[in-house]
Design a protein that fits this description.
2 helices; alpha+beta; 4-stranded mixed β-sheet; 18% helix; two-stranded antiparallel sheet; 28% strand
Length: 116
């Protein structure tokens, strides 16, 4: 059997119980633009940039961001050309992060949370 022929990643769904905070985070911190969303029977928002959509889905069961930032959980990875500038923007916005390096590679990473 041959694999499904995928063309590209269309969107990622993110649960939220903090819709307005999440909208602001994805727009102001990560540079996504809000796009038209169908009139579903539940709250949410659709955002787009960098060739991918983020679908915020309101769900009271969304997890609370507690404890230490853990890099070994489900995550969205975004590439930037200037990690130092990204770090400074996170600091200026008061967003906690964890910095790490990939062993054996010239890859540095910043891990941070969205509002949920």
């Amino acid at each position: 059997m041959s694999p499904i022929e995928i063309r590209y990643v269309h969107h990622l769904g993110r649960l939220t119980k903090r819709l307005e905070e999440s909208r602001k985070f994805y727009r102001e911190i990560l540079g996504f633009e809000e796009i038209e969303r169908p009139n579903f029977d539940f709250q949410g928002a659709w955002l787009y940039n960098y060739g991918v959509q983020i679908h915020l889905i309101v769900n009271p069961a969304a997890p609370d961001p507690v404890g230490e930032i853990n890099s070994r959980v489900n995550h969205l990875a975004l590439h930037v050309d200037d990690l130092d500038a990204a770090r400074e923007k996170l600091i200026a916005a008061g967003i906690p992060f964890k910095e790490s390096a990939v062993p054996g590679r010239k890859v540095r990473q910043l891990f941070f949370r969205d509002p949920d």
